[in-house]
Write a structure and sequence with these properties.
The protein has two domains: 4-60, no CATH class; 84-162, OB fold (Dihydrolipoamide Acetyltransferase, E2P) (Beta Barrel), CATH 2.40.50. The protein is 15% helix and 34% strand. It contains two helices and twelve strands; from the N terminus they run αββββαββββββββ. Residues 38-67 and 70-81 have low confidence and may be disordered.
């Protein structure tokens, strides 16, 4: 059986990460946590009490078009449009920073033109600041993560309309 403080901690971890969904099943007890915009926020199903330690937790990251104003066919159009854009992805797990210093201006914003060697953000990993380059020439269309947010390996950070 899941304890309330464990559930609260898992909700906090999911909320602070880039994960969209977390599902855990231990000896017939199932816990599912999804970020807002998903059908279900928290669902706990209990069976008989367990005397075993928790099994390994499996994380699953999902990317959904979750704009409440967009439905049906419009969602597929939005998804197709976004899929045609170049994604700048995180090369590592770390903390995403838009600026070179805490009080500095963002390195890039929506509408900015970039070239392949333009620094677009900084990823902090193991106390090292790693500058990330655009890798393509084009225009920044969307910034997909917030400043200070933890990012995962391979997570899209920016959408760029390549030239």
């Amino acid at each position: 059986m899941f304890k309330l403080n464990e559930i609260k901690e898992l909700i906090k971890l999911v909320d602070e990460s880039s994960l969209q969904e977390l599902e855990i099943e231990v000896e017939g007890n199932r816990l599912s946590i999804r970020k807002p915009g998903q059908m279900e926020v928290v669902n706990v199903q209990h069976s008989a009490p367990q005397a075993y330690p928790m099994a390994p937790v499996h994380f699953q990251q999902t990317n959904h078009v979750s704009d409440p104003g967009v439905t049906g066919v419009e969602q597929s159009i939005v998804a197709d449009t976004k899929s045609s854009l170049h994604k700048i992805v995180s090369p590592m797990v770390g903390t995403f920073y838009r600026a070179a210093s805490p009080d500095g201006a963002p390195l890039v914003s929506c509408g900015d033109k970039v070239h392949s060697k333009s620094t677009v953000c900084i990823i902090e990993a193991m106390k090292l600041m790693n500058e990330l380059e655009a890798e393509v020439k084009g225009e920044i269309v969307e910034v997909l993560v917030d400043n200070g947010q933890l990012v995962e390996f391979g997570q899209p950070l920016f959408l760029v309309r390549a030239e």
